[in-house]
Each structure stands twice: as structure tokens, then as C-alpha cells.
Amino acid sequence: MKAAVILSSIGLFLFIQCSPVPVSGRRQLNLIPQSQLLALSFQSYQQFLDENQIVRGTEEAKMVATVGKRIQHAVEQYFRAENKLEVLEGFRWEFNLVKDSSVNAFAMPGGKTAVLTGILPVCENATGLAVVLGHEIAHAVARHGNERMSQLLLVQLGGMALSEALSEQPQLTQQLALIAFGVGTQVGVLLPYSRIQESEADRLGLIFMAMAGYDPNEAVGFWHRMEKLGGPSVPEFLSTHPSTENRMRDIRRLIPEAMKYYQKQSLKFKSAKWYALQSCL
User: Fold this and answer.
1) Sequence-distant contacts of 220-226: CB under 8 A, at least 24 apart
2) pTM of the model
């Protein structure tokens, strides 16, 4: 009886600590004040940059900065239209290309974004890169990092508060943060991002890239190229992402919604170009 009461109390506490995802409305566990999480994110990002080689001044680095800024503006436009700009409170956007052969990219809470050079051949061009950045930035604005860090604190540190964890076990907490923010990988009880989170990021990422003026149809081609990288397939239940086949099926289903934003953006561009031509006549 007493155990049941304790479990019920814990369940009620966790329910109260849940908040809706800014994108889908799904309730997510959120034990960490946003200000504390952003401070941890910014510190972890700077540490990552200090330990790796940033690529500067090349055409590829300029492409990362340009695509990143365009998607940043699309994100701000999206949440302004939704009257939810508070979702982006405290963001300090940053886009860096980092020399590393890994096929990876990530966006940490607060908009701190890194693209590893190993993923650029798979992207092929700016539109392919927009698929990646739209998806990774969607993780950040959907507060998946906070959700993952909250889960990791519960499982690994018994629900310890972030400030307490940083004080008593700083090294472990920093490692957990990198996992929670998608910088590290782990197969076990907890994965960096769940398939639900990945699906949410796919949907919003397509919208963001479309609003930034990139054709969301390119997402299918990008995941085809990812599939061709080779190697034995990882069973979906052990993967941090949905299987490529399932992901492409779901993306095809989501593209019509994203295309509405892309078509609106194309009309705005054509109108602006027409007015510019008229002013020159």
C-alpha cells in the first residue's frame, strides 16, 4: 500500500514536470530550468569547439553559415507567426563547420550548431545541407535536449537537480549533456534521440527548410544517399533514427505540408524580383 502511494506520488510529480513540445503538443519531461540548460549547452559547445578544428573562410564554411542563417530566420518567422517567440528566448545562434570525418551534425539548446565535414559529401549542395540543419535545429527548438537531459538525470543520477549534479559529479554530468544534446551516441537504456523525437524533428525540419527557400523534396534524395553509405543495417529498435525506409516513407507523407510553405516563399521571391525589375524600367 505504502509503495503504491509512493509510486503514485512520483507519477504525479513527473506529470506536473511535463510540458508540451513547442511543435507537436506532445507532453515531454522537463525537469531543468531553461536558463540552466542553456548555460550548460553554451559551455559544452565552447568546449567542443576548443577541442576540435573549426574550418573558416572556405566556400563550404560560408555555405554552412549562409544556410544556417536562412534557417534561423525561418525559425524566427515560424514562431513569430505562431505567437510563440518565447520558445526562442535565450537563443544565441552560432553555425560552425568542424573538421571531422564523421557523418554528423548537431544543434544544441540555444541554437549552437556544428556541421562536421564528413557529412558534406552526402549533402552534395546547400539544399542537402538545409535538410540536415533544418532537422537538427528542430531538435533544439522542440527542446528535445532538455527532455533527454531530464531523462538521463532521472536514470543515471536518481533525479538529481542539474545544479547539484554539476556540483557533485561534474564530469559525468558533462558527458550526459553531450549525449542528451546529440553530440555523443549510446546504445542501451537511453538513446540520444527517440524515434518520436526524430519524427518531430523531421516534420518541423522540412517546414523550416521550406520557409528558408529550400525545396523539401530534396530530403528524400538526401536519405537515399545516407542509405548508400553501406555497411550492415542497424535494427531499428537499436537505432537513434527510424530505419531509412520508414523515414523516407514518412518524409514523403510530410512533404505536401512543407511544400505549402515552400510555395509561399517562392511567390514572395517572385514578387520581390518582379518589383525590383519594374523599378529598373
Assistant:
1) 220/248, 220/251, 220/252, 220/255, 221/128, 222/122, 222/123, 222/128, 222/131, 222/132, 223/247, 223/248, 223/251, 224/248, 225/122, 225/124, 225/128, 226/103, 226/122
2) 0.81
